[in-house]
Amino acid sequence: MLTEELKAYARRVPEELLTQGDLAVADEVLDPDCIYHTFASLTTGAEGIKQWVTALRRAFPDLRAIVEDEIAEGDTVVQRITCSGTHRGEYLGIPPTGKRATWQLVAIQHLGQGGKFAEHWSSADLFGLLHQLGAASAVGDTNVAAKRNA
Predict the structure, then answer these.
(1) For labelling, which of 37, 75, 104, 136 has a CA lying 20 to 30 Å from the CA of 30?
(2) Structural domains of the chain, with CATH
């Protein structure tokens, strides 16, 4: 796959799967046994990713994921993505706040032997997101459960 084709293929994840909520894209671009190393968990298989996306979109139904930068080399694509959405459903145990949040993430996707993405790593600004939702203080209190029970 040529570099520009690989980038376009990789953009289907943030643009179609995350932003549009088109779960069929997971079957089209992700290996059935793919491994997703995300900021919140380790998810395996296209079905597991569909569940993760469904939960994320339930929490942020107007979720938008915009690719700001991307680099491709060989069978790997790196993307810097800006996500935004309104917190309308429970997320990481945090009840809906109705607050709008914007956060950054970096995603790395590796194409497997079958021409689909076999492994994905992402690192997101989880602290920034939690702070915007009022679940973490500016001095670094990220203990969401303690804040909820206080």
Answers:
(1) 104
(2) 3-149 (3.10.450.50)
Measure CA 17 to chain center.
10
pLDDT per position as a tens digit, 14-39: 999 999 999 999 999 999 999 988 76
Residues β-bridged to residue 72: 77
pTM of the model: 0.84
Tokens describing residue 9: 């293929």
- Condensed to tens digits (0 to 9), the pLDDT of residues 59-99 reads 999 999 999 999 999 999 999 999 999 999 999 899 999 99
Q: 62: closest CA among 12, 15, 20, 14?
A: 20
